[in-house]
């Protein structure tokens, strides 16, 4: 056991009434925050929790937004999410100040430990048709409950339509500060392809009436790695730290990209349209049967192909920024970069676009 990590976690637990640390294990799956499964003992009873150390630079208002979202969903009886615990002082987080007069400090929070199996990550998930349908049901229910939430705080990241122009600048910044790796070589070779995709996606979205589309709190990171399964059913949804107010259509598109853009060498970037149809048909059916939120409208479905392109650029932007600002393995991030570029090429193929639009015809609701 790493004594320094154990001491750190024990110190955080001192702020809670959850008992003393008896075991912990770091979660190796995350790329953003650092998380631990922990077990505590209190009055002779042991219980498991999930403790997160947030990345440096996270703002207090972002934590307040995430945690108030969780609390609002809990009040609406969304039973598959992890509760966030309050400290002895009534806060949902612990802040440990850093150097330079308290700057560069770190936030921590403790959540319920969700049951179920961590079956997938965000990379190359291969869900069964039943798992796909169950996941779509969860996203539809999340959106239905998130339609009228009163949250506090806010996520500082811009909405997708405002973020797209910034991606261009981040790409240029990365190109101007190469590290001499295979990642840089591939980025330079494909920079024009990425530039063109950004411009085409921005122009395409301008032609859609995005102002008339539904906005609500979106998950913004809905993928199989943030779900827990029992059998083929989703029993847990977590990681709301990327959530924000944005277009519902974008959240659905982001999920389609995560779930169905292939990672196989010979099919990298290919979007599995049959699986997309299962997901979308289920999503639509759930909202047709329940009140509180209408299914995807025809306006939203018309926009979906371009929103999938935007979702791909969103993750490509994360890849570029992570590589630029962190000490990461260039080979691993080259895989992410190639995946984004290959998806750009697939989406830019006219035949694929026609097939995607034909698939969407099958999930339209004539009444919306």
- List low-pLDDT spans: none
Alpha plus pi helix count: 11
Based on helices, strands and strand pairing, what is the structural class? Answer: alpha+beta
CATH architecture of the largest domain: Alpha-Beta Complex
User: Which overall shape is indicated by the principal axes computed on the Cα atoms?
Assistant: globular
Instruction: Please state the CA-atom Rg, rounded to the nearest Å.
Output: 21 Å
Order of helices and strands: HEEEHEHEHHHEEEEHHHHH
How much β-strand is present in the residues? 15-25%
Q: What order do the strands of the largest sheet run in, or round the barrel if closed?
A: 1-2-3-5-4
CATH topology of the largest domain: Aminoglycoside 3'-phosphotransferase, Chain: A, domain 2
The description of the largest β-sheet is: 5 strands, antiparallel
CATH superfamily of the largest domain: Aminoglycoside phosphotransferase (APH), C-terminal lobe
Average predicted confidence as pLDDT: 95
**Number of E-state strands:** 9
Overall helicity: 40-55%
Integer count of domains: 2
Q: Which CATH class of the largest domain? A: Alpha Beta
């Amino acid at each position: 056991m790493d004594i320094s990590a154990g001491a750190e976690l024990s110190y955080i637990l001192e702020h809670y009434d959850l008992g003393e640390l008896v075991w912990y294990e770091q979660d190796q799956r995350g790329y953003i925050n650092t998380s631990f499964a922990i077990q505590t003992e209190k009055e002779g009873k042991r219980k498991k929790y999930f403790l997160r150390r947030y990345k440096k630079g996270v703002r207090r208002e972002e934590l307040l937004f995430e945690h108030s979202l969780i609390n609002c969903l809990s009040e609406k009886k969304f039973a598959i999410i992890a509760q966030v615990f309050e400290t002895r002082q009534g806060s949902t987080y612990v802040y440990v100040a850093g150097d330079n007069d308290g700057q560069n400090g770190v936030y921590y929070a403790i959540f319920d430990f969700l049951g179920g199996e961590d079956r997938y990550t965000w990379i190359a998930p291969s869900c069964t048709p039943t798992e796909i349908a169950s996941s779509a049901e969860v996203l539809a229910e999340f959106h239905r409950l998130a339609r009228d939430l009163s949250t506090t705080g806010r996520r500082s990241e811009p909405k997708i339509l405002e973020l797209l122009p910034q991606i261009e600048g981040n790409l240029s910044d990365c190109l101007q500060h190469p590290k001499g790796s295979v990642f840089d070589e591939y980025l330079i070779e494909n920079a024009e392809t990425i530039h063109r995709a950004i411009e085409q996606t921005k122009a395409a979205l301008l032609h859609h009436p995005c102002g008339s589309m539904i906005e609500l709190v979106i998950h913004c990171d809905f993928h199989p790695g943030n779900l827990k399964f029992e059998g083929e059913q989703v029993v847990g949804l977590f990681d709301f730290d990327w959530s924000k107010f944005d277009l519902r259509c974008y959240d659905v598109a982001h999920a389609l990209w995560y779930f169905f853009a292939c990672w196989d060498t010979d099919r990298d970037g290919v979007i599995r349209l049959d699986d997309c149809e299962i997901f979308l048909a289920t999503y639509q059916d759930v909202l047709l049967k329940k009140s509180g939120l209408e299914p995807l409208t025809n306006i939203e479905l018309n926009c979906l192909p371009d929103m999938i392109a935007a979702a791909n650029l969103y993750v490509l932007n994360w890849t570029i920024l992570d590589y630029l600002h962190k000490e990461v393995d260039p080979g691993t991030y080259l895989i992410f970069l190639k995946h984004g570029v290959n998806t750009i090429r697939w989406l830019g193929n006219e035949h694929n676009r026609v097939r995607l639009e034909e698939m969407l015809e099958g999930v339209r609701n004539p009444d919306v």
